[in-house]
Amino acid sequence: MSKSKQQTYSTIVSANPYKGDYYGGTFNTVSKTSSPSFSKEQYTISFLNTKGFISTLIGISKNIPDDDIYDALENKVYEELALDMAIEYHIKYIEAINRSTESDRFFHVFVVDPLTLEQEYTQVVDTIKYIDQIVPVPLLLKSLYVKDLIETSDVHCFIYFQENDAFFCIYNEQEFIYAKSLKFSLKHMHERFCELLGEQIDLISFETMLGEEGLNTSYPDYQKNLIKLFGEIFLHISDVITYAKRAYDIKKFDEIYIGTGAGKVLGLDEYAQTYLGIKTLPFDFDYGFNTNGERVDQIHQLMHLYGRLEVDERYECNFTIFHRPPPFAKRDSGKLILVTAAALAAALLYPGIYWGLSYVEEFHHAVLTKEYETVHIEKMTREATINLKVANKNAAQKLLDEQKTAYKQKQDTLVQVHEKKVDYPMKAKIMSDFTRSFNQYRVQLKTIEYTEDLNNTKTFTFGLTSSSTQDITALLKHLTDIKRDQYNFNLDLISYNEEQKSYLSELKAVIK
Fold first, then answer.
1. Does residue 12 fall inside a structural domain?
2. Is residue 280 included in any domain, yes or no?
3. I need a labelling partner for 371 at 20 to 30 A (CA). Which of 114, 285, 338, 389 fits?
């Protein structure tokens, strides 16, 4: 926070819109706030997780003036990311200083859908009325370098698993390079762990197990499946690292910092270092805050640290649309009240002026009345002309609407013909493809149904039967692995038919 902000705001409040928790900070103390509320004396900061924005690296000519940089980047972003031109995305950028060439400047551009801001932060704004700053979560890591919690300028990778998201981020020479959302959030880990274990445990118990026992849990089945789970996680991370090295010409990572919102996971950094072959440290920094012995999520502490930085020390990339109300004198209502008060005071001090003004106004009124008569005649003539042109316009519009209606009817007919010629054969091919998979895993197809709803969502519903639940689950895993880019699969229940001595299930495949 700048010096002015430190003087103006006595409290910093950090908000996690995805979990709905808040932490308040004064001086060097940070503690959880169970009932946050609106206050003019507090500075509010929140963050966007990596699923909430798109980031990309854009290069533009150095000949473009600073005043035109935003327009140039906006045009290239809409073009390169194929964004919908009908949507006014929120776009912010920071310069990638170390990537500049003789002819071009490069910028990290962050793009946010306006609906994301309106929907994700509704509860926060309802509670505390405004948010001074909303920062993409990877940029919060800049404060680690400013405050010398990390003193080197090596290539660092940060991996942090939150409850609703997980991010992978790279800094080089203490500057942001790249960020990506990982598919293994804590919730996704929990779901996959229960799937591997073959039984259900609640999310809180899973997070408690990670935070208290780590990868060396006392239950052999738990430990075996945790190791298998993190094997899948680090296989995914290894692919991301390989891409980042190639895309950003990184020779090697000097250090990886890894952590979770559930707390420090014992054995995780050693496992990561063994799997990835890169020096690994826990993402668990001492920020210097007094938390009264309470464990505070690293993201909340980073927000408090970031909020205390000088303006020129942090990345100016603020996505907030929930600004605090301006000072009273700058509001329209405030200006009106001040003007009214000044007028009333003047009227009380100088009543004689208004008597003189009344005579002046009478003379002015007579002059305006004469002028009005001339202008009124001209007005009536122009109104008649306008009415004629409006009538002609309405007639032309009616004809245009009729032509559009006829065109739309012909277009719909052609679309229907195309669908019958193209889509119907495709359905047969799809069903044939699925049938081969069913036969491969010894699962019989009893019924099939195809539906389309008002949103044009196309769904195949397969009634399946098998003598073994393992065949059905193996089939589901096979289909999910090879067809995840084409379908969303859903299999809610596997039931047992006593008479037929077989297992029944209903598999839904929704075309993406």
1. yes
2. yes
3. 389
